[in-house]
Amino acid sequence: MSERPHAVTIYAVAERARVSIATVSRVLKGSSVVTESTRQKVLDAVQELEYTPSGAARSLAERRHHTLGLVLPELGGPYYAELLAGFETKAAELRQGVMLVIAKAEGHGGDAIRALATRVDGIAFLGRDVERVRRSGKKLVLIAADSLPGVEVISTENIAGARRLTEHLLAHGRTRLLFVGDPDAAHDVRERYEGFVLAHHDRGLEPAQPVLAPFRESDGQAVAERLIAGDLEADALVCGNDELALAIMARLLGAGVDVPRDIAVVGWDDVMTARYVRPGLTTVRQPVRDVGALAADRLFHLVTGSAKAPERHVLPTEVVIRGSCGCTRTPSADPEPDLYPIPTPHPSKVRSR
Amino acid sequence: MSERPHAVTIYAVAERARVSIATVSRVLKGSSVVTESTRQKVLDAVQELEYTPSGAARSLAERRHHTLGLVLPELGGPYYAELLAGFETKAAELRQGVMLVIAKAEGHGGDAIRALATRVDGIAFLGRDVERVRRSGKKLVLIAADSLPGVEVISTENIAGARRLTEHLLAHGRTRLLFVGDPDAAHDVRERYEGFVLAHHDRGLEPAQPVLAPFRESDGQAVAERLIAGDLEADALVCGNDELALAIMARLLGAGVDVPRDIAVVGWDDVMTARYVRPGLTTVRQPVRDVGALAADRLFHLVTGSAKAPERHVLPTEVVIRGSCGCTRTPSADPEPDLYPIPTPHPSKVRSR
DNA sequence: CGTGGCTTTGTAAGCGCTTTCAATGGTGAA
DNA sequence: TTCACCATTGAAAGCGCTTACAAAGCCACG
What we know:
The structure is a homodimer. By secondary structure, chain A is an alpha/beta fold. Chain A has three domains: about 55 residues, Orthogonal Bundle (434 Repressor (Amino-terminal Domain)), CATH 1.10.260; about 120 residues, Response regulator (Rossmann fold), CATH 3.40.50.2300; about 150 residues, 3-Layer(aba) Sandwich (Rossmann fold), CATH 3.40.50.2300. In chain A, about 40% of the residues lie in helices and about 15% in strands. In chain A, helix 11 links the parallel strand 7 and strand 8. Chain A starts with 9 loop residues before the first helix and ends in an 11-residue tail after the last strand. Chain B binds a DNA duplex through helix 2 and helix 4.
């Protein structure tokens, strides 16, 4: 029972197959040519001994981990899971492993990221404080981040989408719009607020200051309370994401406020709940999965050296019109929403399949 | 620019700090005692050279990867993300890395799992075909699986919860209950159906055969259509999970069927949407995050040898009563549900904090 | 039969760390 | 001043692979 870890090595296999370890290695990697007969001998030995190679030894010898790192700030909501799924799927396709670090959980002072850098060929990073990762000297891809000279960045269209969404509300005749979310919290929120501002300027209006709120449901509740109490005044809310929008909307509805008649509410992300609530939540859909896949793809090419100069990739988003913005529709179980694709100013270089 | 990967090694640091590599190693690991002055010299050298150690070399020397593997069948819905979050958080706490494999994406014939086994100390597995992982000879923890002699299993209470939930519906006077989901698809679904059956037997009733349906929303739509068409008859639906329940309910509602009056619907998982829809979805909440954390914890102890005999851990669930089962409540934004904790027959050995 | 030129296989030198064991130097007691 | 004894540091042997490079077969050919 107290076997040493990894008792069966390539030497055991070689001995069993009566060949040298070099030959075993060659068979396993399928690299250079090996006679069919010896090849079979080796494979048999591998089977019989239940040989599992040591990735560490291989990585050391090859100077490559065949593993990509992904750093996410958290894992709440469908956004990150979707991103991760895209990343993993593409990585698997490229035969690379995936190591995940959730930065928020970092109790040990950046330890986890440092440890990560130790076992991967490159890191895809989504979050704040890029420096932490940059210092590792690993190949790097930034997700949903601001441009950084010499660094590959992948993001989605935010400004034009938010502008369009806001314009839509304005076109409904709404006059007192509020942006809910913290532009300083994340780069994409900043961009969404930017779009919000631009849409106002388009009409010569003065946009209100953002109502700062983190992205959790409880924060939405709080904002709703302020609205109900009259502490905040608005006839339309542009929320930084769907969780926030849904929480606010639910609380408002519960207090007898009519959404969208009294207040219109729109979000961002198009989470599952958005199409199940009444009224359906008008929001913006992003190709999150594609973002993840693209990140893995770019990172891999950075690592293997087959990448061109670092680029900024902006994937397109689309406005999803449901009822919460004030559009009236025949109620149905899952209303087919109207879609407004948002063209990207710097069109994506890489398209999803 | 074309630096060889990992040009700066422990040797460079040693040279720069004018000490031996042994000393550098000692400083970095904080293992044995080193004079404060040399310690500082080393740390400075590390800083200046931006030294990032090679995890591969370390793993090889230590014969330990300090990494735990997690295999999930997919990443859809909040269930897996939550599980993963719990796993990652606990692993980080234990200073272990996390490698993730999504089995469904395995285009390359089990390749990914085999590759995973070469780079981790142990694997937590959720899915079908356990043998694939078992063959690797790695330490193993099974999640939401049937018991397997000699293997650590972590799951949640399903039978008693489903029995209670079904009984609740029966107590509402419902007589033609249908179970929606495929008991053969996953072990926990099988257990839920078992609870469904038991509740019927408790009252001397004969349970209906399960309505087979995978767990996607589209499958729910299909079931709803059959109900509407009269192809299927029921006054209450016990669904294998919330996605299914929500999809069915939405379709039913859209077709003018009154839920819960005409048909009651209950689910399993307590996803976010469950508390936003009207009527609120009655469902069962599982401590998914704890399951993930427990898996990481057990796996770690298995790896480090500090584990007792393999156990089966069953974490408790609780029935969450909202409106879709037929209970009438004053409507409010986020109705505080009634909770029915389900005691576990084999109480959990390890409690979440 | 001896040779040259392939193809297949083996030898051995790392890859960058950890860790045991030995060497070194500083300290206090005698 | 000398010596024993620690505390600190260094030397070197792996860890289990990959991969030049060399050796050994094998064949056809002269």
